[in-house]
Amino acid sequence: MTTIRNHVQLIGNVGQEPTITNLESGKKVARFSLATNEYYKDSKGEKQTDTNWHTVVAWGKTAEIVEKFVEKGKEVGITGKLKTRTYTTDDGNQRYVTEVVADEILLLGSKNDK
């Protein structure tokens, strides 16, 4: 049962071009937003879409895959875990950020997708 603790699986579309950072240690980190959609019918029977946005962070080899193959609009599948971190803004307010740390990325859609 330990494999299902803090486990996230998402399929969605990349919201903007990934940002790639090369750290001093030689490691790479990739960040991008992912939109996931849920569809439902409202009380009038009309189809509605609820979009949720997720911040995805990938490290090392996974970041290299993101750098080479992932672009805005691309449909991808992500497996990973949730990570919450805190930081203090310049004006002294504490902020919390929850991100999906990707272990694996699956490229979806056809090869000709742009």
UniProtKB/TrEMBL annotation:
Record-given protein name: Single-stranded DNA-binding protein
Pfam families: SSB (PF00436)
CDD domains with a match to the protein in the record: SSB_OBF (cd04496)
Keywords from the UniProt entry: DNA-binding
InterPro entries, per the entry: NA-bd_OB-fold (IPR012340), Primosome_PriB/ssb (IPR000424), ssDNA-bd (IPR011344)
GO molecular function, one term: DNA binding
HAMAP family recorded: SSB
Subunit structure: Homotetramer.
Keyword DNA-binding: yes
